[in-house]
Design a protein that fits this description.
The protein is of the alpha+beta class. It has 2 domains: 3-147, Nuclear Transport Factor 2, Chain: A; 158-263, endopeptidase fold (from Nostoc punctiforme), CATH 3.90.1720. It contains 9 helices and 13 strands. Strands 1, 2, 3, 4, 5, 6 and 7 form a 7-stranded mixed β-sheet that branches. A hairpin with a 3-residue loop joins strand 11 (220-225) and strand 12.
Length: 333
Amino acid sequence: MSWKASAAVLAACVVLGTGVPVAGVESGPQAVVRQFCQADGLGQRVQIAGWAAVAPLVTWSLEPAWDHVVLIGGYEVDSPRRLEDGGVAIAVRYAVIGEVSALGLDTAAHMETVEFRMDVANGVWRVLGPPLPPHIFAYRVDVNAVRHSLQFGELNFLPNSLFIWQEFHSAGWNVAFVPTIDLLNGQTYGAVDKPKAGDVAVYLRDGVPYHVGVLEADDLIVSSTLNAGIVRTTPDAFPGEIQYLRLVEPEPVVEAMPRPTPTVAAGSAKASPTRTVAAQQRARPSPRVKRGKGNAPKSHRSHARPSKRKHVKPSRAGRKPKRPTPIATGQVP
């Protein structure tokens, strides 16, 4: 079946309320992956109330407060396959339509293949972490509303990268806003081997950042989650490799921003990262405003005060009569 046809069939099933037929047809790890993909596609992973449908299907207990979501037209689940270490993996192919973040909508359509590793305990299969970003059916997404939520936050929801940005600004640092996925580019933060309080803790899935927090003290990280709000946890509370970063020579803020209350979501009067930077740039006076009268350029002073010698006229008694030049008299050929 083609991707367009499979997406249309899937959309029709969801609209009619029947969903994807799983129970009674399939069992085992493939059925769990199908249930997870369906719940994810319906947006359950970006709703606090929807976490109850996702939690029994996965091994991670804390869902990151994602700062971007992937828009899909459909997906296809492969059959389970055994791994060399004895585990089980299932590949899922997504028809990606675009991606929404605080920076806007990226409409680069492509095919994406994700491998889900499975874990079984007492006969119950679950999806292993680290988690992938939410993959939601595009027809269910209001792009403008989602972008506003990711840019400013909402009640009980503050995207993880926005949380980090606000923490540093409230501490007096004019740090640039960096999406979670770009934290390892080295422009704003640099990797450190021995972390200390105030460093950034980045969690990776297949080498790509998916969650971020701040190291508050030894073995204590504060970060923003969807299902638990702002939490303080041990570093191993989130699955995957962890990388510690430190600000690269940040520029102090002239006027410190008021410190946000971590337990309250940032949907209130806080400015967005882009608007704050623009406002700071507009507030800076231009070089012409900064100069005083005594610092005016030389050229302006010469025009403002012409030399007195220019206005002095010699007396007629001492002047010699004018004689025509050789060119004027025609003596020079």
